């Protein structure tokens, strides 16, 4: 299919996504967050239902290889909730994995990514729709360079977009230098995440000028002043002509952050962030950011 978003139920035209949470997690588990794993299918189902009740139509899950994606659970959840789900392949920072996992992937990362994009994740048959990788704090270590090199190979083989976790929102320009400069990935196939965590307007603009997508995700984090800074950052980029490059996401990574457990969760993106952002840039642009932009960012002519 030409220019399709690869969801867990198959490829769909980008315009069918509806209102999209462009960065979130239904399932996630890391040794860095002991006791806060997202493992409950019933909680994931309730969270999707709450998101749907606020007008949500699609969720892009950025959970990569080895961090509890539960790919086989995603298709029934998507059907039951009536919400499109896009799954990820890729690899997070090395601190999220034990040595045995990393050793087992050495030398075959690109092969794993391509297989999960084209054949499926494990025995689930669910194909990933993009590659998720991660940078470090103001730097790219050897692990980040290896994973991004593998992601670039997977992109060349499949056309899949590459989404990047920026640690505390930093390192955007280094990531672009590597992925788009050294490795030749077209900028419009790169999505930079967590830019709201480092509200540097100059860097935001320089990144946008490359042609990549900029994701403002993870509102209402206790340790990040994201909510009140984000509207100004989005407005500055929109006024500079980059409104078509922007994405919004919730990035729910712990059980306590879910709305069904008393946190803001996925619904907060539409219940509170959307109207607040509309005051800054207008409802029409916010609607495009939530609907048209994700379709372009994750829509691919699959090879």
Automatic annotation (TrEMBL):
Binds 2 divalent metal cations per subunit. It comes from Streptomyces aurantiogriseus. The keyword Transcription regulation does not apply. Keywords: Hydrolase, Metal-binding. SUPFAM superfamilies: Metallo-dependent hydrolases. The keyword Methyltransferase does not apply. The modification N6-carboxylysine is found at residue 132. GO terms for molecular function: hydrolase activity; zinc ion binding. InterPro entries: Metal_Hydrolase, Phosphotriesterase. Belongs to the metallo-dependent hydrolases superfamily. Phosphotriesterase family. Zn(2+) 2 binds at residues 132, 165, 194. This is Phosphotriesterase. Zn(2+) 1 binds at residues 23, 25, 132, 251. Its cofactor is a divalent metal cation.
């Amino acid at each position: 299919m030409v220019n399709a978003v690869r969801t867990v139920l198959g490829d769909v035209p980008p315009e069918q996504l509806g209102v999209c949470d462009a960065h979130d997690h239904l399932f996630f588990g890391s040794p860095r967050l002991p006791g806060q794993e997202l493992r409950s299918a019933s909680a994931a189902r309730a969270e999707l239902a709450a998101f749907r009740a606020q007008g949500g139509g699609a969720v892009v899950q950025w959970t990569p290889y080895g961090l509890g994606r539960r790919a086989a659970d995603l298709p029934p959840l998507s059907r039951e909730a009536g919400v499109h789900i896009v799954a990820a392949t890729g690899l997070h920072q090395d601190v999220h994995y034990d040595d045995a996992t990393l050793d087992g992937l050495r030398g075959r990362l690109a092969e794993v990514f391509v297989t999960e994009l084209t054949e499926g994740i494990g025995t689930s048959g669910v194909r990933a729709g993009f590659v998720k990788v991660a940078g470090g704090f103001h730097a790219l270590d050897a692990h980040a360079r290896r994973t991004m090199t593998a992601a670039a190979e997977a992109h060349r083989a499949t056309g899949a977009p590459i989404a990047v976790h920026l640690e505390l929102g930093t390192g955007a320009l280094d990531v672009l230098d590597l992925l788009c400069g050294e490795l030749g990935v077209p900028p419009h196939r790169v999505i930079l995440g967590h830019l709201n965590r480092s509200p540097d307007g100059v860097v935001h603009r320089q990144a946008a000028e490359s042609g990549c997508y900029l994701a403002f995700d993870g509102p209402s984090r206790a340790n990040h002043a994201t909510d009140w800074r984000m509207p100004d950052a989005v407005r500055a980029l929109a006024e500079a002509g980059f409104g078509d490059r922007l994405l919004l996401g919730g990035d729910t990574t712990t059980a306590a952050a879910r709305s069904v457990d008393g946190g803001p969760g996925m619904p907060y993106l539409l219940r509170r962030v959307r109207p607040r952002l509309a005051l800054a840039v207008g409802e029409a642009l916010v609607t495009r950011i939530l609907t048209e932009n994700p379709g372009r960012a994750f829509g691919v002519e699959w090879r």
